[in-house]
Structures are given as C-alpha cells and as structure tokens.
Amino acid sequence: MQIQVVKSKIHRVRVTGADLNYIGSVTIDEDLMDAANIIQGEKVQIVNNNNGERLETYVIPGPRGSGELTLNGAAARKVAVGDILILITYAWMDIDQAREFNPALVFPNEETNLLN
C-alpha cells in the first residue's frame, strides 16, 4: 500500500507579486526551492493564511536570493501582494518508507522571504 505524505513545506512566506497575464504557475526564489527540495515543474499546494484560499499549480524558479514569490496567471486572483502563504508538496511512498521519511521544512524570514 502507498500513502501520500508531506514531502516539503515552505512555511509563512510573503507574496511579492501577482502577475495575471503570465502563463500560470508560481515563481519561487531558487534558494527556497533548494532548501525545500522542490524542483522546477513540481506540483505545489498553496494555502493563503490571509483569505483561506487553497490552490494547486506548478513551480518555476525565480532569481536566487531575491525572496521572490509571485503567483502567475489565474492564481494571481487568489492572492494580494503581502499575503502570507504556506507552500506544500506531497509524495507517494510505501507506508513503511513514510514512517521513516523526514520532510524538508523551511521557515524563511517572513518579511524578506530569505533563509535565516
């Protein structure tokens, strides 16, 4: 049997941009992606602490050290610049593997989105 578990989480990161006219996705500072073990194109769940919205999209890398977190395309309508988000990825694994697995949990500086 396989179950789906949290693979990684970027906890309490601030929205820096919302670009309705971009072709979809979320742009994340590549340093945050690396710290959370998230790769380009990976599916991510986004939870907005300010308005309760939840959505899924895919990740594209933003400039390293920029603190960028931009929602693109239709997802831009679900956030406002300055909103606080939680980004979560999941992975399927055998239940025994899941018991041993440790997700990558990242807690960036909430004001700058940079790693502490």
UniProtKB/TrEMBL annotation:
Binds 1 pyruvoyl group covalently per subunit. Transmembrane segments: none annotated. Its cofactor is pyruvate. GO terms for molecular function: aspartate 1-decarboxylase activity. It comes from the Bacteria. It holds the Pfam family Asp_decarbox. It is found in: Cytoplasm. Pathway: Cofactor biosynthesis; (R)-pantothenate biosynthesis; beta-alanine from L-aspartate: step 1/1. Keywords: Autocatalytic cleavage, Cytoplasm, Decarboxylase, Lyase, Pantothenate biosynthesis, Pyruvate, Schiff base, Zymogen. It is an enzyme of class 4 (lyase). Substrate binds at T57, G73, A74, A75. Gene3D superfamilies: 2.40.40.20. It catalyses: L-aspartate + H(+) = beta-alanine + CO2. Its EC number is 4.1.1.11. Is synthesized initially as an inactive proenzyme, which is activated by self-cleavage at a specific serine bond to produce a beta-subunit with a hydroxyl group at its C-terminus and an alpha-subunit with a pyruvoyl group at its N-terminus. InterPro entries: Asp_de-COase-like_dom_sf, Asp_decarbox. Heterooctamer of four alpha and four beta subunits. Catalyzes the pyruvoyl-dependent decarboxylation of aspartate to produce beta-alanine. Belongs to the PanD family. This is Aspartate 1-decarboxylase. It comes from Robiginitalea aurantiaca. The lineage of its organism: Bacteria, Pseudomonadati, Bacteroidota, Flavobacteriia, Flavobacteriales. The gene is panD.
